[in-house]
Amino acid sequence: MGSAGEEAGARSELLVEKHAAYIASFSKLWEVPDKMEFVATEHFWMSGLYWGLTGMQLLGRLGEMDGEAIVAWLLRCRHPDGGFGGSERNDSHVLYTVSAIQILALYDKLDLVDADKVAGYVRSLQQSDGSFVGDKWGEIDTRFTYCAFLCCTLLGKMDALDVAGGVDHIVRCKNFDGGFGSTPGKESHAGQVFTCVAALSLAGALDRFDGDLLSWWLCERQTKSGGLNGRPEKLQDVCYSWWCLSCLSILGKLHWIDQKALSAFILDCQDEHDGGISDRPDDMVDVYHTFFGIAALSLMGYPGLDQIDPTFALPVATVQRVRQKQAARQALQEAAQQ
Description:
The chain is an all-alpha fold. The chain is built from 15 helices and two strands. A two-stranded antiparallel sheet has the order 1-2. Strand 1 (308-309) and strand 2 (314-315) form a beta hairpin. Helix 2 packs antiparallel against helix 4, helix 4 packs parallel to helix 6 and helix 8 packs parallel to helix 10 (190-202).
């Protein structure tokens, strides 16, 4: 890399062209089995594609991706139980099922899946206490509640779930500091806070916790660098820009943090030569942090970026299109019953 002055200049604005080229280089990873990345990342390709594709849409570059090939691959990851795996060789998991549904929403292809079957799979993961397991092996985590709620919301099938039970489980995971943990009694963490707040938003239950107390906890995540951390005494990381900001946006408190300092931190984490965004300045970049850096900048209204919905983690235009189609279907069904 160049001198500190040169780097600051190159990183003073979002390097759209370089980031688009970087993300596009991973768009068909399944075709290059001789690459180290193939072996190391195969189990979460579905989520990796969601991160990359949504990032490209926010950059206004989704049309540069081979959508037909991507959707064809995605459908090959579908299992008879209605769920999707991280790749063709991985079992169904709610994390990759929601990523698959998000990708199909991006491409306006939700009609390619059996919504009732997918919702049935998601419902099979809900436990008697309202919580959700991620797959047949039984791990419980508030992330999975969000995935379940989001997946069924996008499919118009929230009535397939015990929403009230899911909400009650999330509330049991609330802590004295205002945050939420992965299960009851676990430490508050910004990533878990996002999944809980977004899930409660989808369920229309934002009144079940103290929004001001939680917002103060989220604001305290901003460090002297301008970046945000995920819990007290931890290092700042670009991904928490999204986890924290999305919650503040949902709660109407986005103005409670120093957005100028955060934007500068995210931009300083760019690779000005090869594209991509890292967790901290001058670290190795990856698609995960690239997406969350772009998404956070979008939330803060960075010029030229499409607007992202803080609850759905999808472009606002995508969410509006899904809702419009659901409303149209509902209207047709009601007309047919008259």
